[in-house]
Amino acid sequence: MFNLNPSIKIIMIHLILGNTGSGKTTYAQALKKKTNGIVFSIDKWNKTLFLPDKLDTDGLEWFLERIERSESLIMDLIMQLEDSKTDSILDLGLSKFEHREKFRNFAKCQGFEIRIHFLDIPRKKRLERVMNRNLEKGATFEFEVTRENFDFMENWFERPTALEMTDGIVVKDEQSR
């Protein structure tokens, strides 16, 4: 989509994706400063809204259903941000092609621009970050990610295709922090 009138700001939806420990939340916060956008971080939503009620028997489907509900509200909020011409920065995991496609279709239907930011960080570096984050419990810590969770996400994550990355931004290790 091309903005033929530069005085009219078309809002941008930034999709931040990368596997566990790639630095998505840190990157989203830095992008917020550059764009004056609003960050939607699913880890914060999960920690605040759902984790206090989670039972030991609740598994992946339990999380996915709650994430879906959260994203419905997030889409509504993005629509409201249109009036203020404010970009949205989605730190939602976006591990699957289908998940990213949902937001691409939403953006297209609403006439919003979209840009993918892929944090392509080596596994070893990401694992080190996750284990350190678990210990330090710093600014981006929302909940502990176990080694088992990390390994599961390694197989769950689908790298973006070349077509998805058209006009996208790829961030390599040295650029991510």
Report on the architecture of this protein:
The chain is an alpha/beta fold and 177 residues long. The chain has a single domain (12-175), classed as Rossmann fold, CATH 3.40.50. The chain has 6 helices and 5 strands; from the N terminus they run βαβααβαβααβ. Strands 2-3-1-4-5 form a 5-stranded parallel sheet, sandwiched between helices. The radius of gyration is 16 Å and the shape is globular.
Features:
177 residues, alpha/beta, Rossmann fold, five-stranded parallel β-sheet, disordered N terminus
Layout of helices and strands:
Layout: E1 12-17, H1 24-35, E2 38-41, H2 42-50, H3 60-82, E3 88-91, H4 97-110, E4 113-120, H5 123-136, H6 147-156, E5 169-172
Parallel strand pairs: 1-3, 1-4, 2-3, 4-5
Helix pairs in contact: 2-3
Oligomer: single chain
Which band does the percent of strand residues land in? Answer: 5-15%
Output the CATH topology: Rossmann fold
Helix content range? 40-55%
Quote the average pLDDT.
Answer: 88
What is the CATH class?
Alpha Beta
Catalogue the unreliable spans: 1-7
> What is the fourth-level CATH superfamily?
P-loop containing nucleotide triphosphate hydrolases
Q: Could you say which overall geometry the principal axes of the C-alpha atoms support?
A: globular
What Rg do the Cα atoms give? 16 Å
Distance between the termini: 30 Å
The count of DSSP E runs of length 2 or more, i.e. the number of strands, is 5
Order of strands across the biggest sheet? 2-3-1-4-5
Give the topology string: H per helix, E per strand. EHEHHEHEHHE
Q: In the CATH hierarchy, what is the architecture at level 2?
A: 3-Layer(aba) Sandwich
Number of domains: 1
